[in-house]
Q: What sequence folds into this?
């Protein structure tokens, strides 16, 4: 069976960058965010439930979800966020589980990028080990602004709604510090790559 590592961290911490580093080494990498995007894309499996539970006004005339309106709706109240999570998270969990089964035994280990791994313990059932990416707050804010164009206040609001650094540390088996030094980041990935390969050989 493939050994699975859950990769998580705050928004803007560099999770996707780290996942890409592992992928460049030939490690299978899955992304909860990518699955969520597919579920809410045109014809996505989650759209009927979103329309029924979140409202018709979150949709465009062509039937696709208006992502900007949906994001504004989610951040308008914690209850709205819970409604959407209750729709998406079981679907995401099932998709990850299905994909995992297809990959199991084809690679020594794999990475699953799950942003809310600390907040949603049920997702921890999908992995054997947890890797947390940490980054200074100012770096996180800057990365989100450059990537998504969100203003600083909204970025800080999103960060405040996520688990804090201490909660993520409490579930971490491994931690990578991503402070903008690419050489150090790659060194940390290579170090853990060696550890994970060694762990899989012990478990096999």
A:
């Amino acid at each position: 069976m493939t050994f699975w590592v859950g990769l998580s961290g705050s928004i803007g911490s560099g999770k996707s960058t780290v996942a890409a580093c592992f992928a460049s080494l030939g490690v299978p990498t899955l992304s909860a965010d990518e699955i969520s995007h597919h579920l809410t894309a045109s014809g996505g499996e989650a759209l009927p439930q979103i329309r029924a539970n979140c409202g018709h006004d979150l949709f465009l005339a062509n039937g696709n979800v208006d992502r900007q309106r949906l994001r504004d709706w989610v951040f308008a109240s914690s209850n709205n966020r819970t409604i959407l999570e209750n729709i998406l998270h079981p679907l995401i969990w099932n998709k990850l589980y299905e994909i995992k089964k297809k990959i199991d035994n084809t690679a020594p280990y794999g990475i699953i990028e799950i942003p809310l791994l600390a907040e949603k313990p049920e997702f921890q059932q999908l992995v054997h080990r947890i890797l947390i990416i940490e980054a200074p707050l100012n770096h996180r804010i800057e990365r989100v602004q450059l990537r998504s164009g969100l203003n600083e206040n909204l970025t800080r609001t999103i960060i405040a709604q996520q688990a804090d650094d201490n909660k993520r540390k409490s579930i971490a088996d491994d931690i990578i510090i991503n402070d903008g030094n690419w050489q150090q980041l790659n060194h940390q990935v290579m170090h853990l790559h060696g550890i994970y390969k060694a762990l899989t050989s012990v478990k096999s």
